[in-house]
Amino acid sequence: MDFDGIKGEVLEDKYNGLIGRRELTIRVDHILKPTPSRLDIRVKLSRILNVDIERIYVRSIKTEYGVGISKVIVHIYDTTERAKVFEPEHIIRKNGGLRPEGV
Q1: Residue 44: inside a domain
Q2: Measuring CA to CA, which residue among 90, 75, 86 is closest to residue 25?
Q3: Counting Cβ atoms within 10 Å, is residue 42 exposed (0-12), middle (13-18) or buried (19+)?
Q4: pLDDT value, residue 28
Q5: DSSP per-residue string spanning 7-72
Q6: How many domains does the chain contain in total?
Q7: Which residues constitute the domain of residue 22?
Q8: pLDDT of residue 94
Q9: Would you say residue 51 lies in a domain?
Q10: What's the CA gap between 79 and 90, in Å, rounded?
Q11: What's the rounded Cα separation, in Å, for the pair 57 and 6?
Q12: Per the domain annotation, does 103 fall within a domain?
């Protein structure tokens, strides 16, 4: 996976059939660059996986100080309605709501 010069590698990809979502763990290498934003990750994953951005939620981005490598946890839902039911309100807000401005 390539995020405009920032490399990404899927470490874990599992499907949760009960909830109706894919749960991805991605390692993002951004050496000498800032940590990518949630919106950047959502937009890039939307384009790469050909999935509507309203179904993608970045749960967490964890970066070790000075390393330039982040571990990102992402949930991709089958439908937007499933996301509304299962994602906590604070995660929806952090991700810019259902449809972020400018996307």
Answers
A1: yes
A2: 75
A3: buried
A4: 93
A5: EEEEEEEEEETTTTEEEEEEEEE-TTSPPPPHHHHHHHHHHHHT--GGGEEEEEEEE-TTT-EEEE
A6: 1
A7: 2-94
A8: 92
A9: yes
A10: 19
A11: 19
A12: no
